[in-house]
Design brief:
The chain has 141 residues and is mostly helical. It contains five helices and no strands. Helix 1 packs parallel to helix 3 and helix 4 runs antiparallel to helix 5. 10% of the residues are buried.
């Protein structure tokens, strides 16, 4: 949150809400006690500039993303990989088609093998069980 705020610019309700969410997460994690949270929340609601708001959250780490946010990010990355696959399919198919035209004959569709392997890997990523840890590894054995 602190990185995005311009200290001299007046803030909007959205920035105040973001600071209040960060303060609430810090309270839930035990980083702030109830009195400190209440004091900072009042100050956040009264803050006018990014500098005032940043000072209230500067000593707090950003909260860990929720499982839902991580899942959304993973899905976006997976779909992006499929876009790369599609780009590869277009390029390989164009090369195959150009060779067919050059030879004046329809040859076997060689892009099927690399595209099939690539697609199998992407499908395996989607169905493979996910680890419980942050780095995708399961807990101890």
């Amino acid at each position: 949150m602190n990185d995005r705020l311009d200290p001299a610019i007046r803030i909007a309700d959205r920035e105040r809400d973001g600071a209040l969410e960060l303060l609430a997460a810090a309270l839930a994690e035990g980083r702030l006690d109830a009195q400190e949270h209440a004091r900072r929340a009042r100050q956040a609601l009264q803050a006018r500039t990014g500098a005032e708001l940043a000072a209230l959250t500067a000593d707090l780490p950003a909260p860990e993303p929720s499982a839902r946010e991580r899942d959304r990010k993973d899905l976006r990355a997976w779909l992006e990989e499929w876009r790369y696959w599609l780009g590869g399919a277009v390029i390989m198919s164009a090369i195959w088609g150009a060779n067919c035209v050059r030879k004046h004959e329809l040859t076997s569709y060689w892009p099927l093998l690399p595209l099939g392997v690539w697609a199998a890997v992407l499908v395996a990523i989607a169905v493979w069980p996910r680890g419980e840890g942050e780095d995708g590894e399961k807990g101890g054995s």
